[in-house]
């Protein structure tokens, strides 16, 4: 395989695509604008405890993601839901204990943290193949190639595959000639996974909730957190609670959010709930390398997997990929892998046509 493929984005989608293409003999380069790989996979290490502030769970029906975990020799373990859950119906009422319904679909977590996937994928690349701090600003169509310009470098490839969210792509990268108008319109109406999420984690010395017969699972109609889960690690040696905040709090300060959460923790768990070692959070709405803020409301998963993303552009030299473009499980980790496999098949077909 002699084609050179330039991949925009070093999240799960881009790294997986590079991993598969390199094994097939393609020459690849991955450009990541951030100072880290992983994109929306973000495992924060706090007080020697790994807290997932990005993608966290997978399920048994995520066949292609499970196949990747098997290939990379990555182990999984079940999300703990043993014990009672808590539900806060109103701000005036106390949280009520209840039994979670039996026979629920099992959620799995990754031993060592979700970033284990991207770290293992990244081991496949040399420093010439994976570049950080390379924010793409322009894509120029040439006769037989594509020129990609970042803020401080230039690259040339036979094919460019973008794995960044479509809305971000069409609003932050200049195309010469201009990108297909219909594609831009759909991209601006495509919801970006995690864009509206605020995830938080609280590290504790002990899993006090288990001693109370609780699972660590909690739900609230009034917030500030709407969901919370046990986040004990696989070896049962580090302890945390992790969950989601009401996204209306995105404009508040971190200190304000923590103060509100602390009060809600006291209501849910008593004084032990407030006795955490540290508080971590990630307001994904404020991540400039994730979303383009145009003040337009989009329902979750709007236009994810739209047929327009299955087409190739710039005379077959540009492919729009990434989780949001997947026709199966669009907007999830499984979607990133599913779409990656589609793109690999497309590129192999293109190579065979040339050959």
UniProtKB/TrEMBL annotation:
Q: Which Pfam families match?
A: Amino_oxidase, NAD_binding_8
Give the family, as the similarity comment puts it.
Belongs to the flavin monoamine oxidase family.
Please report the name of this protein according to its UniProt entry: FAD-dependent oxidoreductase
Q: What sequence ranges are listed for the domain Amine oxidase?
A: 103-346
Give the matching Gene3D superfamilies: FAD/NAD(P)-binding domain
What residue range is the signal peptide? none
């Amino acid at each position: 395989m002699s084609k050179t493929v330039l991949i925009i984005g070093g999240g799960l989608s881009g790294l997986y695509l590079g991993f598969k293409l390199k094994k097939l003999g393609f020459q690849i380069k991955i450009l990541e604008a951030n100072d880290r790989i992983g994109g929306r996979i973000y495992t924060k290490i706090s007080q020697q405890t790994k807290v997932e502030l990005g993608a966290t769970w997978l399920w048994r029906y995520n066949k292609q993601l499970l196949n990747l975990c098997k290939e990379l020799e990555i182990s999984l373990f079940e999300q703990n839901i043993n014990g009672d859950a808590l539900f806060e119906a109103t701000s005036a009422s106390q949280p009520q204990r209840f039994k979670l319904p039996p026979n629920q679909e099992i959620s799995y977590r990754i031993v060592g943290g979700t970033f284990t996937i991207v770290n293992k994928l990244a081991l496949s690349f040399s420093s010439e193949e994976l570049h950080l701090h390379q924010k793409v600003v322009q894509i120029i169509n040439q006769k037989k190639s594509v020129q990609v310009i970042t803020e401080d470098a230039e690259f040339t490839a036979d094919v460019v595959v973008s794995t960044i969210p479509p809305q971000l792509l069409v609003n932050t990268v200049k195309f010469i000639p201009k990108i297909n108008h219909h594609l831009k319109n759909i991209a601006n109406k495509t919801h970006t996974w995690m864009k509206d999420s605020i995830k938080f984690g609280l590290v504790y010395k002990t899993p006090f909730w288990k001693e109370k017969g609780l699972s660590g699972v909690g739900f609230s109609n009034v917030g500030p957190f709407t969901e919370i889960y046990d986040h004990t690690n696989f070896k049962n040696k580090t302890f945390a609670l992790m969950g989601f905040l009401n996204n209306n709090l995105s404009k508040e300060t971190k200190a304000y959010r923590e103060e509100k959460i602390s009060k809600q923790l006291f209501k849910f768990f008593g004084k032990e709930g407030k006795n955490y070692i540290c508080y971590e959070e990630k307001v994904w709405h404020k991540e400039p390398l994730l979303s383009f803020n145009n003040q337009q409301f989009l329902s979750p998963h709007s236009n994810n997997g739209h047929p327009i993303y299955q087409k190739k552009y710039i005379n077959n030299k540009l492919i729009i990929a990434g989780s949001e473009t997947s026709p199966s499980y669009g907007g999830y980790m499984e979607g990133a892998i599913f779409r990656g496999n589609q793109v690999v098949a497309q590129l192999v077909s293109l190579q065979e046509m040339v050959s």
